[in-house]
Sequence to fold (286 residues):
Amino acid sequence: MGRIAYVNGRYLPQARAMVHIEDRGYQFGDGVYEVCEIKGGALIDEARHIERLRRSLKELSIGAPLAPGALALVMREIIARNKISDGYLYLQVTRGVAPRDHCFPIPSVRPSLVMTARAIDPAKGATLAAKGIAVVSMPDIRWKRPDIKTIGLLPNVLARQAAKEQGAYEAWLIDAEGMVTEGSASNAWIVSQDGVIITRHIDNAILRGVTRTTLLELIAADGLRLEERSFSLAEAKAAREAFITGATTLVMPVVCIDGEPVGDGRPGPLAHRLRARFHGMAAATF
Fold:
């Protein structure tokens, strides 16, 4: 049986799941999304993902497609129909279908909701984490509100593709002041030579990562030293360790930046420790 998608009230084989040609997400990128980890059939940090979705919708003046309880039921139904034990759930909300016009439609139209789920093999992520990843730096050319999780990801796509073409896993984006903002699809972290964990402070230049938030709680619970502040590319290259976080990567060690080794060029012990303990802090809901 093939994968099942949810599209505006209907469960359909993914091959037949479609949206209208005048959906504003398709024509303008006028929408938002969330990606939730599924582990052991449970959604990880569901409440935080839904709260971030609510915030993104509010920032763009898009209405909620479903009441919270109904949305939760659909999320679980998609997991069940796709028989997912370990994987990811993708949820997208757009402003809806309307004749093409840059201005918001008047009267408002019903928001469009699409949901899919995909299985993954956790062992592949563990193998990658044991080896570590390379990142490359490039200018941050995104719009000035990446704190809103919009579906307009073309600059991120170009950055990730450029990283791939250079043999790297991820791109770290650099602002006009030479500071690291975040990755194309992740938050960026370093560990200083004296063991301080550093990640950029929350502002409109980065996404408020759900995995990032959970990791901050873990760091506090373990009594580790933390600084939420900007850090430069030079500081990152001189760090003892580096790693990225995201729903699809969890805590992933970075061993190389722009071809230069981070620390001894191997995944650091702190990154491994945080990765191993992450699910003990993250909230799982069935």
Observations:
- DSSP finds eight helices and 16 strands in the chain.
- Residues 233 and 280 are 32 Å apart (CA to CA).
- The chain has a mean pLDDT of 97.
